[in-house]
Automatic annotation (TrEMBL):
Coiled coil: none annotated. It holds the Pfam family bPH_2. The lineage of its organism: Bacteria, Bacillati, Actinomycetota, Actinomycetes, Streptosporangiales. Residues 49-128, 395-459 form the YdbS-like PH domain. InterPro entries: UCP026631, YdbS-like_PH. It comes from the Bacteria. This is Membrane protein. The chain crosses the membrane at residues 7-26, 32-57, 169-190, 210-236, 339-358, 364-384. Keywords: Membrane, Transmembrane, Transmembrane helix. It comes from Nonomuraea thailandensis.
Amino acid sequence: MLLIDPVRMLPSLLLPLVGVLFVGGFSARSYAYAAVGVLAAIVFATVRWATFTYEIVGDRLETKRSLISRSVRTIPLERIRGVDVSTPPMHRLLGLTILKIDTGASGDEEEAKLAGVSLDEAERLKALLLRRTAEPAGDAHVPHAAAGPKERTIIGVPRKWLLYGPLSGAYLLTPFAFVGGAVGLAFQWGDDLGLSQDDALSAGEWLWGHPYLLIGVAVLLVLAMPFAGGLMYAVFNWNFELKRRDGYLVAERGLINRRSVSLESKRVRGYEIVDGLAERWAGVVRVWAIVTGLGDSETRGQLLPDVPRTVAFQVTGDAIGPYDAALRPHPPVARRRRLFRAVFPWLVLAAVSVAGLWATGGVFWWVLLVLALLLAGGGVPLGLDRYASLGHGYDGGRLAVRSGSLRRAQAVVERRAVVGWRLRQTWFQRRAGVLTLIAGVGAGKGGYSAIDVAEAQGVEFAAEVTPEWLAPFLERGES
C-alpha cells in the first residue's frame, strides 16, 4: 500500500508538480520542491496506512482511522447487503484486492472500503461478513468450516458474445469521450503549460477556417465508434460469469480490473430486461437485478451483459424465477398518443419552415423543411414501436411492466415486493381516458410504471395483484 497510494495520487499531484517546475524555470530549487511534494505524498500514505485498522467484534465490523482526528465506524453484520472484491492492475501485481462493503444506507457509495487486503484475506472476510445472512437459522449448529462454500456456475458468457458490445450504445461514444477529456485537460493545464486564451481562440479560428479537416476528424471518430466501443465493452465484461454461491448471486467480470459482486438471493425481488433498437434487431438484451437496499444498482446490479434473448430468459428463470404469462396490450388510444408525440413536434417545425420559406425564400428553410418532414415520417414507425412495446401482466406470483422504444425495459417483480400503488393522470390522459399505474416496490428504482393503461384496466390490474388492499374500496364503490 505504501507503493500503491503514492502512485494513485500522481494524477492529482501532476498538475501542481508541473506548475512548480514551470514557475521555477526547471531550476534546481523547483526540482527540490517537486521532490518534497512527492515525499510528502509518501509520508501521507504511510501515516494513513499506519493509522487505519479494521476488526470484527461480535456481530459488527469496526473500522478505525486516526489520521488527524479519531473516527470509528461500526457496521452491524446483519445490515451488510453485499461485499464486492475488485483487483485493479497494481493490486493484482502485488497480490492485493480492494474489498467494498455495501449496506444500502449510503446511496451509491460503499459503507466501508478496505483498499489493500490479500487475496486470501479478502475471501476469508467475504465469507465471514456474508455468513450471517446467508446461513439459515436452522443450520446455525453446523460448523462453518465443515459446511464449506457451495458454488454453482449459472452461466459463463462466451467471448464471441463480446461482439454484441457496440450494440448497447453506451460504449459507442468512447472516441468522443476521449476527445472531450483531452480538450478538458488542455483547458485545465493550459495556464501551466503556457497556453493562453488567445492561443485557444487562434486554434479555434484556424480549425474553423479548415472545415474539411473538422469533417474528416468527425468521420474518423464515427468510424472508430464500434471498434473503440467494442474494445471498452470487452475490457469491462471480459470472462463474465454468474454464479450461485452460499445464498448469493455472484457476478464476476473484467480484464484489467477484475470485479466480483455479490447479491444476496433472498433480497432479490425481480429483474429488469433492457434492449435498444440495435440490440432488438440482433435479438440480444441486458439484465439487471432488482434488489432491496442495493447502492449503485446500475453497476452492482448487472446480472448479464448483452446476451441472446432466449439465454437471458433461461438465466433469469434459473437465478431468480420465471415469468409465465403474456403481456396484455394497452388500449388503441395509447397508440394515438405515441404517434402524436413522435410526429407532431416535427410537423410544427415543418410549418415554421414553410412560413420562413414563404417570408425569405432562403436555402436554410428548404433544408430545415426537408429534415422536419423526414423526421416526421420516421416518427410513424417509432410511435408504432413505442406502442407495441407497451404491456403489463401478472402470472400469479410476479407482475411485469414494459415500455420504451429506443431503450425498452421490461421489469419483472415479485408480488411480495409491491408495497403500494400510485395512479397518476395528466390533463391529456384524463381527456384520453388513460392513466399511468405505478407499482411501488421497495427495491430497485422504487417504482415501475404501466404507461397509458385504460382507467378500468389500471384499477383491475392493481386489484388482481393485491386484492386484499383494494377489495374494500371496490365493494364500497359498488354499493
